[in-house]
């Protein structure tokens, strides 16, 4: 008879791990969905709230900036208030602010409620990840991160589809009001199953936090406003860049010299965690930039309605969900680094397939490449999240997960800004090159001019066709760029260690409900 498998003790012991996991993930999915679900409703909000195109973007910007600033606060707040009080307050605040967003009558009201929503939502994902790590033994980290990753990665993928359906079936307010029943259910479940934790009256390093918050806020504003003001041709962007770099530099120097800094930089000495941050930055770039490119490609160039766009993109979410569940079960049997490399190769392959898109294709290639990309991302995220935290000390987990979440979000911002900038630049370049190849003096062109009744008519038709083809080529250029970014990141895998010995549970954190 085989000896039973030795399983280390978790850092935190709870009576109802399954129900607590369900409660945590319900809250997490609600929060993650909100990062993309409102995007498709912006045109409808714009008319309802009497806002201009630039002004309505603050509905997204206010949420992103508020969440980015609040995310690093998670560790200090968890110590000061306790995880139970913090997550219950965050879920309650997020639910209330969602309802207020759905009832907003003006743009200032909407922006104010979105700021509150972003602050509350910022702490939910790091708390969820750190709690799942604490209530599971090290040997089960892979399965725990598979469950966590399914919500984190699938949420943004299905968000636009759900948002589009809710907007078309009801109205834009339903995008926010749908959070009310979900939030109430998550709050009730967490109140029943979330255990209490020890409170640590840690001093608040206001100066350190201020420098970090200023740096993050300016970086987010740079990424969000860059395309609007033509990037570094605007003084505004240079100011954001300078203040962001200066704030980060002062923050690092302060943390290295202060007696009780806002963040203990010792956690970055963990090689797996530091390498994991680089990787999750790349994952953020490739995941969310693809999500930003496909809807306008399908709707503007190929004429897909919103609902059909969501259906065509659905296999991406299915692939991610399936791969995360499978990888969670395979984590103990294979070196996680092998799965990360396999996932990156599959993701790069799917992006290569996307470089073959054309305006005459059917849905098969779109859905196949999407499913493969989802499969690859799932194979990367689960083992990466496991390796990043497998060797880090338990006392660093909340701060570490908050920075992990922050870097992923910054990566997504960089990715979206990067592909948007490349798209605009290549659209202009491709339009100029294609336009030069049009010969109006050719016999065929002269015959076409006569058939449509004049030079102005044919020029308008030609410009439309050239613009369409130039845009398609620009999208393909973006897909090639993302493929290269994915391939270049593969060598970083070899800086990861496969794992370490299980940490002994911290008796001050061990508890039972």
Fold and architecture overview:
It is built from 20 helices and no strands. It has helices at 17-33, 42-48, 53-56, 58-70, 74-81, 83-103, 107-122, 124-135, 141-169, 174-177, 179-193, 206-225, 235-257, 271-301, 306-330, 336-354, 363-390, 397-436, 443-452, 455-488. Residues 500-513 have low confidence and may be disordered.
Estimate percent helicity. over 70%
Shape: globular
With helices defined by DSSP (H or I, 4 residues minimum), what is the helix count?
Answer: 20
Separation of termini? 35 Å
Largest sheet: none
The Cα radius of gyration reads 24 Å
Structural class of the secondary elements?
mainly alpha
Model regions low in confidence, pLDDT < 50 over at least 5 residues:
500-513
**Secondary-structure element pattern, one letter each:** HHHHHHHHHHHHHHHHHHHH
Strand content: under 5%
Number of strands: 0
What is the residue-averaged pLDDT?
A: 81
């Amino acid at each position: 008879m085989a000896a039973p498998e030795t399983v280390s003790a978790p850092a935190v012991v709870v009576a109802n791990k399954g129900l607590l996991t369900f409660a945590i993930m319900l809250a997490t999915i609600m929060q993650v969905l909100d990062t993309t679900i409102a995007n498709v409703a912006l045109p409808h909000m714009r008319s309802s709230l009497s806002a201009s195109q630039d002004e309505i973007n603050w509905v997204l910007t206010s949420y992103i900036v508020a969440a980015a600033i609040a995310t690093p606060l998670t560790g200090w707040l968890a110590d000061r208030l306790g995880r139970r009080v913090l997550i219950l307050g965050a879920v309650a605040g997020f639910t209330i602010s969602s309802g207020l967003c759905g009832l907003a009558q003006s743009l200032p009201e909407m922006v104010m409620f979105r700021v509150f929503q972003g602050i509350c939502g910022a702490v939910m994902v790091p708390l969820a990840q750190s709690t799942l790590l604490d209530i599971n033994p090290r040997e089960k980290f892979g399965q725990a991160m598979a469950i966590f990753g399914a919500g984190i990665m699938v949420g943004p993928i299905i968000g636009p589809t759900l948002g589009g359906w809710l907007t078309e079936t009801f109205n834009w307010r339903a995008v926010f009001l749908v959070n009310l029943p979900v939030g109430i259910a998550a709050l009730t479940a967490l109140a029943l199953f979330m255990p209490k934790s020890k409170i640590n009256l840690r001093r608040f390093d206001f100066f350190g936090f201020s420098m970090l918050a200023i740096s993050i806020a300016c970086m987010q504003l740079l990424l969000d406003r860059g395309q609007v003001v033509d990037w570094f041709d605007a003084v505004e962007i240079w100011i954001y860049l300078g203040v962001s770099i200066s704030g980060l530099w002062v923050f690092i120097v302060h943390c290295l010299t202060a007696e009780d800094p806002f963040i203990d930089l010792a956690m970055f000495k963990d090689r797996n965690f530091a390498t994991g941050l680089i990787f999750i930055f790349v994952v953020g770039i490739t995941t969310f930039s693809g999500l930003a490119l496909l809807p306008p490609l399908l709707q503007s160039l190929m004429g897909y309605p919103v609902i059909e766009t969501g259906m065509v993109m659905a296999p991406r979410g299915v692939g991610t969900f399936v791969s995360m569940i499978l990888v969670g079960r395979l984590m103990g049997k294979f070196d996680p680094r092998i799965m990360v490399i396999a996932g990156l190769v599959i993701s790069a392959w799917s992006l290569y397939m996307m470089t073959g898109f054309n305006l005459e294709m059917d849905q098969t290639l779109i859905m196949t490449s999407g499913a493969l990309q989802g499969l690859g991302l799932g194979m990367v995220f689960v083992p990466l999240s496991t390796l990043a935290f497998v060797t880090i000390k338990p006392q660093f987990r909340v701060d570490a997960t908050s920075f992990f979440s922050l870097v992923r979000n910054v990566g997504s911002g960089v990715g979206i800004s990067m592909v948007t900038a490349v798209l605009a630049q290549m659209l202009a370049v491709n339009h100029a090159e294609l336009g030069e190849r049009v010969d109006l003096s050719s016999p065929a062109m002269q015959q076409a001019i006569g058939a449509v009744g004049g030079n102005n008519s044919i020029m308008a038709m030609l410009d439309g066709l050239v613009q369409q083809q130039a845009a398609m080529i620009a999208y393909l250029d973006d897909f090639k760029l993302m493929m290269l970014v994915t391939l270049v990141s593969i060598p970083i895998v070899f800086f990861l260690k496969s794992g370490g010995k299980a940490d002994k549970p911290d008796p001050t954190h061990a508890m039972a409900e």
